[in-house]
Amino acid sequence: MNKLYTTIILVLLAALYFAFGQGQENEVSPLQEKETSLSVETENVRYEIPVSTKERAEILLEQYSYTVSYNPDLCIPNWVAWELNAEKLVERESRNSKFVPNPKLPEDKAITTKEYTGSGWDRGHMCPAGDNKYHWRAMNESFYMTNICPQNHNLNRGDWKELEEACRRWAEVEPVYIVCGPINYRTPKYGYIGKTFRIRVPDAFFKVVLTGMQSGNPRAIGFIYKNEAGNNKRDKYVNTVDEVERIASMDFFSALPDDVERYVESEYNLSDWP
């Protein structure tokens, strides 16, 4: 009888070992599980489309290469979002430089380039022309006035342009998902421009970037640029995506699984963004 009890105990111990001991060796973290699934789902998920966390006027416009949330009250976009990858970096078209009203808007809401004449502000692209040289339609639509904000000349031609160029470098390695737009404080620092329309001059601009989806190593980074002249290194403007969300009143990359979103938005490592 004692021998029987001993045999039963040994069988139970072996079962417990395989259930709890050996099984734990094969467990993966929730983030690892999400990374595996992310590498499969990238083609059908619009990671770049944000969600506003405050009420604002909006006309949502799907263009050839980007999506814009246009604010008809302020006559500038709330945000512009797009995916950039190596295929879109092929230069088939030269810069258009012809700013035109967006034909999707009714005439009484369609800004023309004349509203900026003599204002002292550049017509600053949100989705840059340099990201749209792969197709004539993409290039033409990048000059729609719904993709434009009043921007400091030095910023537009300097530090902001350098960030645009950095995004293209990152897209050569792996697709990037980009959202950018104006930051408008409650009390406008620069006021408004325009002759027929009242166009808000942004106080600052944000840009957030997500990459690493195909490789299973998702990471994100955020930037905030005041709408003023400057000649600074990129680390002067860098922020976590969480911080940009707080300032811009947006929820970025909400299509990510929750634990992955929390992870990538809470920190950044500049060495991952050369």
Helices, strands, pairings?
Layout: H1 2-25, H2 30-41, E1 51-52, E2 59-62, E3 67-71, E4 76-84, E5 122-125, H3 136-141, E6 148-151, H4 153-157, H5 159-173, E7 176-183, E8 192-193, E9 199-200, E10 204-211, E11 219-226, E12 238-239, H6 241-248, E13 250-251, H7 258-265
Antiparallel strand pairs: 1-13, 2-3, 3-4, 4-7, 5-6, 7-10, 8-9, 10-11, 11-12
Quick structural summary:
With 274 residues, the chain is of the alpha+beta class. The protein has helices at 2-25, 30-41, 136-141, 153-157, 159-173, 241-248, 258-265, and strands at 51-52, 59-62, 67-71, 76-84, 122-125, 148-151, 176-183, 192-193, 199-200, 204-211, 219-226, 238-239, 250-251.
Query: What string, H for helix and E for strand, traces the elements in order?
Result: HHEEEEEHEHHEEEEEEHEH
Mean pLDDT over all positions: 89
Largest sheet: 7 strands, antiparallel
The domain count comes to: 1
Give the proportion of residues in helices: 25-40%
Distance between the termini: 72 Å
CATH architecture: 3-Layer(aba) Sandwich
| CATH topology (level 3) name | Extracellular Endonuclease, Chain A
CATH superfamily: Extracellular Endonuclease, subunit A
Taken from the alpha-carbon principal axes, the silhouette is: globular
Radius of gyration: 24 Å
* Total beta-strand segments: 13
The secondary-structure class comes to alpha+beta
State the low-pLDDT regions, or none: 4-11, 16-40
Q: What is the beta-strand fraction?
A: 15-25%
Reading side by side through the largest sheet, how are the strands ordered? 2-3-4-7-10-11-12
